[in-house]
Amino acid sequence: MNLLERYLLKNLISISTRSATDALNSCFLGTTGSIFTSSHAPSCGVSVPATSNTPSSSSSSPDAQAAVQKLRGEMLQGPDFSDFLTGTEISEKYSVEAPSWTEKKRKPDWMKRVVPSGDKYTGIKAKLRELKLSTVCEEARCPNIGECWGGGDGHTATATIMLMGDTCTRGCRFCAVKTSKAPPPLDEDEPDNVSKAIAAWGLDYVVLTSVDRDDLWDGGAQHIAKTISLLKERTEGRLLVEALVPDFQGDMTCVKTIVSSGLDVFAHNIETVERLQGVVRDRRAAWKQSLGVLAAAKKMGARMTKSSIMLGCGESREEVIATLQTLRDHEVDVVTLGQYMRPTKKHMAVSEFVTPEAFEAYAKVAESMGFAYVASGPMVRSSYRAGELYISNVLRGKQDNNSFKKSAPT
Fold first, then answer.
1. Can you tell me the distance from the alpha carbon of 238 to that of 240, in angstroms, rounded to the nearest whole number?
2. What is the DSSP string of 325-387?
3. In which pathway does it act (predicted)?
4. How far apart are CA 156 and CA 314, in angstroms?
5. Higher-confidence residue: 369 or 60?
6. Is 313 annotated as a binding residue?
């Protein structure tokens, strides 16, 4: 079943098979052009034929045309791609070329970072030093640190704590974390110390993440689960906990250990499209393995599942849309999309800088697929505004998961 047919299914309308790209072009832009044309796909070694706005013979029946017109009318009630992308502008508006590491060329204006500030930010930073906690937010120099730590504007103050040390057994080409076949042993006191510190911190929402530890018999699953359980116990269940976990080499017993720990959001990042998995991620991080972990977590009772996609790695528009649909097919509830940024010259190069308009377009597509929550923007990272009011309300039972959809601002 293609993407357009999925859109129309709720209205009991069936039309002949068309590509997801062609369907989106028809719905959003009519014949003016498309942000999702295959001909502008980044140079990534795959040849994809350009789409056409001329309806095929199989989709030109009166019923099909009426269905598309009806859907187009519904979509026009919200923001329309044609408001900012038309005709020849489209290929230029999707992205701009990324300069080489040595090229003295400024990044696009939308990639400028905001200097973190504010009383909440300053208070959290001081508390972290006092409690001797290490956050991914600081170590990865996240551009959203001020916004996430500062809270306000409908979201709670959030920070991401890294467990199991700073050395990973895998070597993904986009990641700046240190790697080793034999990292130092785990700190057995870490679950107790971290849970005490975070409980004393007084947050409403915390994200726990970790390195991959393929050297451990359970990948560190029990270590992570123990931390979550102690956090819930020491905050009397008040604290909402999101865990961004490894794939545990596909061991579903480890997945079950995490799901049963009492966490609220089970997160595992797919990172990129299927074709680029072996280029972007460590070879041990398989596409089907990651999807299997996410699907299993949901079936095992995870309240919410979440994943993230980086753009600017050499993917095409069609591949991004297909990846979003695949995540929904595996019952993923929350998705984030952000721009890949090269940590050092030793890491994978950026293929392009995707525009804010394109990220907004992807957000609309993802919402229409049925994701409960979408965060899509150049500066968005996997834990971006993780304590968003919508997610918090759903998890606390104040809001039905299907009663409304919401996207984070880009």
1. 6
2. HHHHHTT--EEEEEE---SSTTSPPP-EEE-HHHHHHHHHHHHHHT-SEEEESTT--TTTTTT
3. Protein modification; protein lipoylation via endogenous pathway; protein N(6)-(lipoyl)lysine from octanoyl-[acyl-carrier-protein]: step 2/2
4. 34
5. 369
6. no
Tell me if 44 is assigned to a ligand binding site. no
* 168 known ligand binder: yes
The closest alpha carbon to 163, from 94, 241, 90, belongs to 241
Cβ neighbour number for residue 14 with a 10 Å cutoff: 12
Beta bridge partners of 403: none
What are the CA-CA distances from residue 331 to residues 8, 52, 267, 370, 393 (Å)?
19, 31, 12, 10, 20
What is the model's pLDDT at position 357?
93
User: Would you say 137 is a known binding-site residue?
Assistant: yes
In angstroms, how far is the first alpha carbon of the chain from the final one? 30
Residue 237: partners with Cβ closer than 8 Å, 6 or more residues away: none
Token pair recorded at residue 72:
């187009």
Q: Is 27 annotated as a binding residue?
A: no
| Six-digit token string for 126 | 């001081």
Helices and strands (DSSP H and E) totals, the chain: 15, 12
pLDDT band for position 358 (cuts 50, 70, 90): very high
Tokens at 63, concatenated: 């019923």
Q: Which residue has the higher pLDDT, 146 or 379?
A: 379
When the pLDDT of each residue in the chain is averaged and rounded to a whole number, the result is: 74
Please tell me the number of Cα atoms within 13 Å of 146 on its side-chain side.
Answer: 9
Write down the pLDDT at residue 356.
Answer: 93
In DSSP terms, 135 is beta-bridged to 161
Task: Provide the residue type at 124 as one letter.
Answer: I
**The sheet that has 240-244: what strands, in order across it?**
158-163, 205-210, 240-244, 265-267, 304-311, 334-339, 373-376, 406-408
- Give the residue carrying structure tokens 């269905």: 67
At 68 the pLDDT is 66
CB 368 within 8 A of CB 27: no
Domains for the chain: give ranges and CATH numbers: 3-97 (no CATH), 119-408 (3.20.20.70)
DSSP secondary structure, 282-314, as one string:
-TTS-HHHHHHHHHHHHHTT-SEEEEEEEESSS
pLDDT range class, residue 227, cuts 50, 70, 90: very high
> Which residues, 6+ apart, have CB-to-CB distance to 341 below 8 Å?
111, 350
Q: How many whole angstroms separate alpha carbon 189 and alpha carbon 211?
A: 17
